[in-house]
Amino acid sequence: MITPGFVAIWIAWLMAGGSPGPATMGIAGTAMNEGRTAGLAFALGICAGSAAWGIAAALGLSAIMLANVWVFEVIRYIGVAYLGWLALKALRRALSSDEVALGNPVTGTLSTIFAKGAAIHLTNPKAILSWGSIYAIVAPNDASLAMLLGYFAMLYAGSLLIFIGYAFLFSSARMVNAYRSARRWFDFAFAGFFGVASYKILTVRLS
């Protein structure tokens, strides 16, 4: 199940999750302004929403992959387009001289902050597309439900690493300053990696 190709895709998954977006910037802003505990609550809510979409995608795709190979290919191309869009977005940020805001803090009780984090992913259609696309990229077209859930576990571990890691990192003022000073180089790296990953997935021949 774990191949060099999967490791590369897993790294791309980590980078996609860690690149600036509503979830990561919300965690960063909350951790910086409301503290580590609030940042962790928000991150765990996002992880809960992500898990719901990941399991739903696995349950649905396991039933349609065998019967409709064309659906598998369509989802794969959606994944290619999504990675390409991330590459262009990162490149635009890298070339921009504007300061990138690190998000607005989410306030309230810990349960409220958790619920707001879950709502971000549960109401984001890109979340289900991301999970469906990654399954179509990494799994064979005859993948069983057990295999898809195995991929879910490995990919979800990466999501936990990124989102919870953001809550810890951005509760440190030193880390915030380091990110801001090196932001442009991070974005160039994101753009290059997403672009290469998109090209490789587009040109690979799936069996």
Automatic annotation (TrEMBL):
The lineage of its organism: Bacteria, Pseudomonadati, Pseudomonadota, Alphaproteobacteria, Rhodobacterales. The chain crosses the membrane at residues 38-62, 69-88, 148-173. Pfam families: LysE (PF01810). It is a multi-pass membrane protein. One of its GO terms (molecular function) is amino acid transmembrane transporter activity. This is Threonine/homoserine/homoserine lactone efflux protein. Keywords: Cell membrane, Membrane, Transmembrane, Transmembrane helix. GO terms for cellular component: plasma membrane. It is found in: Cell membrane.
